[in-house]
Write a structure and sequence with these properties.
alpha/beta; four-stranded antiparallel beta sheet; globular
Length: 592
């Protein structure tokens, strides 16, 4: 309908004013609520062609459209704005088009026409379990991947695990000294939690040594403790492939990976390819040495290797220390090299917090200088931090909001609320548990994803699980309500078909128009890398349907033609809600 309308407007301008305009230059917007109409044309760009006042130009175009385009039923003019009322028959055609397309809103391209987009997210350290910050990262990355797929891209979801460095040596050393051979099996703890406990224990013991040293030396300066020296010695041994250190590292990292896998499964995210810093940093060093030979980088007198980015408006960036060891930038160059060997990447998206904005500005320049075709155009999906009512999280002190605990508590809260409201009365225990899982996770995911990713956010578990307002459970409950209506219609043997001459009321028209906006919302979410576009669209659609459901009977007190129309509208609202929530990684239950 919109393409036909645009073509008619282009034709009208040609006939009325003898001017050629491109359809892309014609701006149609949704009519504001205070005016009658469905779409609005701003006529100001055409005044130089009409040589008339805005009101007269709009009047002439409106009259031509009513006479020559069956899509337009009537119009009104407000200054330079032409408000068009779309005919019922055109709206019925739109509804039928939506109803016939099971993949409505998604861009479908041939395999050879799909650009390959790689999305990196999660990036955990192997010295601690996933926490609330990781939850936001994973949910954003997963949703972004789904949105890019819906925009016709071939997407590869990837993870880079930070499995080397002083942080893991701290956990390893603490386990050696005070672990007494403890394992996940012997302790009953998940492996990542067990290792995280020893990371916290290292920090506790190290602080005790610092206090003792300051007291002994009579100074306020913090000297390096024997414990920290031992950790650094262990790191050197790791770098030199010491067999015992490497064996311990492999064993403890194995515990962590098993724990991560459980958390990812519970959260509903996965990856197509996982890279490990212990492999990529060596490739990065090779790539930096290659850049050094090509004159892209330079070596200082102390033997360290640098990139001079002053001509790019930045500063000099260290790539290899004087002792030959790598920095984070080196590892990222190595990871990029391996990825480019593995996949013909067209666009690379890094989902990393906004504290790394400068890092990715530098990485983009370096990858471009090293010849990666997507380097200069890499996307740093920079997001804000998750803040808590009682302050920031500190991993070393063990004051983080653990991801596993958070997931469990959300599911428990969903179960408790549903039990209290009697929503589970006619369900089996298995059904109750599954719906509590779906609703609890839906509340968590939606609350995080509805916020613009660029902003810091305050996570409030109680607010997130409310069955009213802009929440996941509110949308899920509406979906379940629609599915219940459709089941009842099926039991009554009602055939869902729309008559071409059906009459529409204002709320029916508004819902059809809102559903028809879904493809544009997906495009905008992909263009802006913004899952909150999808989340808030789902909420507005849900809110509009609930108002429609309140005002317009569906199964009772309506004639057959109207009943069928409203059932088809309901079916497609549910279809779009399910599709949109799927892009957020949120399941919708058939019953609640």
């Amino acid at each position: 309908m919109e393409k036909e309308l645009l073509a008619s407007i282009v034709k009208a301008i040609k006939i009325l004013y003898g001017a050629d305009v491109e359809a892309s230059s014609v701006s149609l917007q949704k009519t504001r609520k205070e005016f009658e109409g469905n779409v609005t044309l701003m006529v100001f760009p055409f005044l130089k062609m009409s040589h008339k006042a805005p009101e007269q130009t709009a009047q002439e175009i409106g009259e031509w459209l009513v006479q020559n385009d069956d899509n337009v039923d009537k119009f009104n003019v407000v200054k330079g704005f032409l408000n068009l009322v779309i005919s019922d028959s055109s709206m019925i055609d739109v509804l039928k088009t939506i109803d016939a397309d099971d993949e409505f809103g998604r861009c479908v391209k041939a395999k050879d026409k799909q650009p390959l987009v790689m999305v990196e997210y999660s990036s955990p350290n192997t010295n601690k379990p996933l926490h609330l910050g990781h939850v936001r990262n994973n949910l954003l990355g997963w949703s972004l991947a789904k949105i890019m797929e819906a925009n016709g891209c071939n997407v590869v979801k990837t993870n880079i695990v930070n499995d080397r460095g002083i942080h893991i040596c701290k956990s390893m050393l603490a386990w050696q000294k005070w672990g007494n051979g403890e394992t996940p099996e012997s302790s009953g703890k998940k492996g990542d939690h067990l290792i995280g406990d020893y990371y916290v224990l290292f920090d506790k013991k190290n602080k005790e040594q610092e206090v003792a040293l300051k007291t002994h030396l009579g100074t306020e300066e913090i000297p390096e403790t024997e414990l920290m020296k031992e950790a650094r010695e262990m790191l050197v041994k790791w770098e030199n492939n010491d067999a015992n250190v490497r064996a311990l590292w492999t064993k403890m990292n194995g515990w962590v990976y098993a724990g991560f896998d459980e958390s990812y499964k519970a959260l509903g995210v996965d990856f197509d390819k996982i890279y490990y810093e212990s492999n990529t940093y060596l490739v990065g060093k090779e790539k930096v040495e290659e850049g050094l030979r090509q004159g892209i980088f330079f070596r200082k007198d102390d033997g360290s290797v640098w990139a001079d980015l002053t001509k790019d408006g930045l500063d000099e960036k260290l790539l290899l220390r004087s002792d030959g060891t790598s920095v984070y930038m080196t590892q990222d160059i190595g990871t990029a090299t391996l990825r480019f060997r593995d996949y013909p990447i067209d666009k690379m998206i890094y989902v990393v917090g906004n504290e790394q904005n400068y890092h990715f500005q530098v990485l983009s320049l370096l990858l471009d200088k090293l010849g990666f075709k997507w380097g200069k155009d890499l996307v740093h999906f920079s997001y804000g931090m998750v803040e808590l009512p009682n302050g920031k999280m500190k991993s070393r002190e063990g004051t983080v909001v653990d991801a596993d605990d958070l997931i469990s508590s959300m599911i428990e809260n969903a179960r408790k609320i549903s039990d209290e409201t009697g929503k589970f009365d006619d369900m089996t225990e298995e059904e109750r548990s599954e719906i509590a899982r779906i609703v609890g996770l839906g509340a968590l995911k939606y609350f995080i994803l509805k916020v613009d990713a660029r902003k810091n956010m305050l996570f409030n578990p109680e607010e997130s699980i409310d069955f009213n307002g802009n929440t996941g459970p509110f949308i899920q409950y509406t979906y379940a309500r629609i599915r219940s209506i459709l089941r009842k219609a099926k039991e009554q043997h009602i055939i869902l078909d729309v008559s071409a001459d059906a009459m529409l009321n204002e709320k029916e028209t508004a819902l059809i128009q809102m559903m028809n906006e879904y493809p544009a919302v997906i495009v905008q979410a992909g263009k802006d890398y913004n899952p909150s576009c999808i989340a808030n669209y789902c909420y507005e659609l849900t809110k509009s349907f609930n108002q429609f459901y309140h005002d317009c009977p569906i199964l009772k007190d309506v004639d057959g033609k109207t009943q069928q129309l409203r059932l088809v509208i309901a079916r497609n609202v549910a279809k779009i809600i399910k599709s949109g929530m799927d892009m957020l990684g949120i399941e919708v239950p058939e019953r609640m």
